Amino acid sequence: MTTLLKTTVQTIAIAIISPLLLTHLLLSVTSSADSSLETHSQFLSLIPGKLGSYLRVAFYRFALDHCDPTATICFGVLFSKTGARLHQNVYIGPRCMIGLATLDDDVLLGPAVQIPSGPQSHGISRLDVPIRDQSGTLQRISIGRDSWIGGGSFVLADVAEQCVVGAGSIVTKPTQPQTISVGNPARPVGKRGEPSTVSASDTAGATATQVDEVRADGTLVS
User: Fold this and answer.
1) Count of Cβ atoms closer than 10 Å to residue 143 Cβ
2) DSSP assignment, residue 200?
3) Cys bridge to 134: 8, 17, 70, 123, which one at CB 3.0-4.6 A?
4) What is the per-residue pLDDT across 88-144, written as a single tens digit (0 to 9) for each?
């Protein structure tokens, strides 16, 4: 699609979702911006195909802290925090859930990736108060440029630039640049660009959805 045609489609998409921007503004005043975002996110997530992606991006360009028009947001994607930031050429696969996160340029998220607002979004220290009533601490999670997060992964810590996280992994500690990490909890098993191959025997403890083999050039083999 040519640049002119894309720009035209993006402009039309903004016009279509403009009533939702008004309801988002009103709900943000009467409740909270995050609560309104969740409501509109659930509605917009149900629109399929490229049309759905264009409409979602059009809305999030105004509702999020930053959403680049080149982003792709697939079916079923939910946002919970207006502070989320999506940079150039970000791809978010189907049914992902995004909290207070920054996705840098060219980040790819496979299906059903969850990036909540840090590992302490709920307080758990008190036993005399239900967890739902204990305040937590929100933390921005950043995914560095040109990183690929495999489907079904749960990201609770920063992922550095040009990293690969294997499918079904749980990231609990920050990664180093160009690292390939797999497992629960995710641990480094290789570096992108190195000729070595890491086999399934080196990824003991990975979940059933984990890839069987991870090549250091970034190719995941199931």
Assistant:
1) 28
2) G
3) 123
4) 999 999 999 999 999 999 999 999 999 999 998 888 889 999 998 988 899 999 999
State the Cα–Cα distance between residues 222 and 204, nearest whole angstrom: 15
Residues sharing a CB contact under 8 Å with residue 214, sequence separation 6 or more, in sequence order:
164, 166, 180, 182, 189, 190, 197, 198, 203, 220, 221
On the question of a cis peptide bond just before residue 174, with omega within 30 degrees of 0, the verdict is: no
Count of structural domains within the chain: 1
Pick the closest to residue 34 from 127, 109, 117 (CA basis): 117
Closest CA to 168 of 103, 116, 114, 119: 114
Give the three-class secondary structure for 79: strand
Query: What is the domain range of residue 92?
Result: 3-192
CATH code, domain with 164: 2.160.10.10
Residues 181 and 152 sit within 8 Å (Cβ to Cβ): no
H or E stretch covering 179: strand 179-182
The pLDDT of residue 115: 98
